[in-house]
Amino acid sequence: MWRRLAGLLLVFAAATAGLWLLSSRLSTGQARRPLRFPSDLEELRELAEALRDYERQHRGAALALFCAAYLYKQSFAIPGSSLLNVLAGALFGPWTGLVLCSALTSVGATFCYLLSGAFGKQFIVYYFPDKVALLQGKVLHRIISSVCRQEPFCHKSPLWMPFSLGTRCSNCLQWLWQH
């Protein structure tokens, strides 16, 4: 289990080092001030002004840095992505920023899910078995109560009933088998 925690810390350290290397290569105008995530709207405005000129000259590098920073925040569930959404609109325009942030949110959430599955599940189950059992019981109760609420209405559609009942039973059995 400690190997998994060490693995997660190693992935986090590698991602942090990669983002730092990428951001250190980016020069923001004449002042070469260090880049960091904005924590309020004033810092966001300053960062947007500093990056706007650079983005016009080096669109690919600015896009790569923005994508890396957004994925970093999403993958490790670090708060503050809403400010990056505003920054995307300021740098790339509202429609390009919308599409970019939507895609990056999906990819980042997938990375977060994969990281938590690979590194976090056994750790949580080991240290919080009572809480996990309680949550599993609540989920199972919701599945069973959902089946009980919806199945009486299936008699009106004889073609739907076998499919619905079979799907629900297989979902319940699959969930029970995995846990």
Describe what this molecule looks like in 3D.
The structure is a single chain. The protein is mainly alpha-helical. The chain is built from seven helices and no strands. The longest helix is centred in the middle third of the chain and has 34 residues, at 94-127. The radius of gyration is 23 Å and the shape is elongated. Mean pLDDT is 76; it is low at 154-169.
Summarize the structure.
By secondary structure, this protein is mainly α. Helix content is about 80%, strand content about 0%. The longest helix is centred in the middle third of the chain and has 34 residues, at about 95-125.
What's the helix and strand layout?
Blueprint: H1 2-25, H2 41-57, H3 59-75, H4 81-92, H5 94-127, H6 129-150, H7 160-178
Helix pairs in contact: 1-3, 1-5, 2-3, 2-4, 3-5, 4-5, 6-7
N→C terminal distance:
19 Å
Largest sheet: none
- How many alpha or pi helices? 7
- Kindly estimate the percentage of residues that lie in beta strands according to DSSP: under 5%
Question: Would you list the SSEs in sequence order as H and E?
Answer: HHHHHHH
Q: In which range does the helix fraction lie?
A: over 70%
What structural category characterises the helix and strand content?
mainly alpha
**pLDDT averaged residue by residue:** 76
Stretches where pLDDT falls below 50 for ≥5 residues? Answer: 154-169
Radius of gyration: 23 Å
Total strand segments: 0
The coarse silhouette is elongated
